[in-house]
Amino acid sequence: xxxxxxxxxxxxxxxxxxxxxxxxxxxxxxxxxxxxxxxxxxxxxxxxxxxxxxxxxxxxxxxxxxxxxxxxxxxxxxxxxxxxxxxxxxxxxxxxxxxxxxxxxxxxxxxxxxxxxxxxxxxxxxxxxxxxxxxxxxxxxxxxxxxxxxxxxxxxxxxxxxxxxxxxxxxxxxxxxxxxxxxxxxxxxxxxxxxxxxxxxxxxxxxxxxxxxxxxxxxxxxxxxxxxxxxxxxxxxxxxxxxxxxxxxxxxxxxxxxxxxxxxxxxxxxxxxxxxxxxxxxxxxxxxxxxxxxxxxxxxxxxxxxxxxxxxxxxxxxxxxxxxxxxxxxxxxxxxxxxx
Length: 340
Known about the structure:
This protein is α/β, with parallel strands linked by helices. The chain has helices spanning 11-22, 39-54, 70-77, 96-99, 101-121, 156-175, 197-207, 226-238, 274-285, 309-315, 323-337, and strands spanning 2-6, 26-31, 59-64, 84-87, 127-132, 179-184, 187-188, 210-214, 220-221, 224-225, 261-266, 272-273, 290-294.
C-alpha cells in the first residue's frame, strides 16, 4: 500500500515506517525534525530508514516540513492517493506542556486540523492517529477502558490529544472519514526518546548520578515495548474503522459511534511499579542506581493500566515483551549507539 506516516523521525514513527517498508509498502514520511529533543538522534533514525529502504521491497521518500504549515500539507497530498495515513507527529511531553502550551496548539490542534482536511478532500480510506493514556486524567477506575469517560485531563498535552479524538469523530460523522485513535501506554525501547524515564535513568546510572524517583517509586505504569505498539498500530491501520450498528445515542459508547470511528487502548495490560522498572535497568546495566526519592509531580497520574480486550478481540492484538527483555534490548541499543 501507499502509506503516509507523519512524525517518522520520532520514536514510534521511525519503528512503524521501518516495519511497513520491510513488508513492502511504499512509505512517505513527514517530520519537521524540531529541537524538542536531540535532532541528531532524529537524523540518525532517518538515515537508518533510508538504508533499510535501499535493501527492502518497499520504497521510502521523506518530506521535511511541519503539519501546522497548511501549504506544506496541501503539497504533501497534491496529486497523491494514500491508501492509509498513520498520524504519529505531535508535540509530546507532559512536563513541557506546562511551560510551552502554545506549541501544543500548533503541533497537536492546528496540525491535526490540516491533516483531517487533507484526508477528507483526498478521500483517504483510513486515518489512524496517536492518542495517549494521559486522556484518562483524573479517572482512577482500573483498568482504563475506552468505554469509560475521559473528560478530566490533568495537563494540557492530554487535553490536546483528547481534542484530537473529538475532532476525528466530527470528521467521521460529517464526512464519513474512517478514523481510529490509539491511546498509547508508556512506550519504551531502542531508539527511544531522551526525555523519557528509561533513557534518562540509563544515562544517569551509567554516569553514577542520582535518578529522580517521583512518588517515591510507588506509582505503576503499563510499560509497553515499542515492537508491541508497532504491531497494534499496523493492525489497526490495516483494518478500516466502520460504524457500530449497535451504537445507541441514548446510551452513547465513547469508544465507537454510528460513524466510522473508534478508539482503542494499546498497552501491555500488565502494570508494573516504577521500582520494578528501575530494577530491570539495574540488571541490564549490571550497576545499581542511586535513587533520589521525590513527591509526585503535578499533572502525573498515580497509576496506568490498559484494558486491551477490545484490541485483542477485534484485531487479535497480543503484546508479548516483558520489561526485563524490553529494557535489556534498549540498554544494548544505548551502549551500541553511544559506543559505551
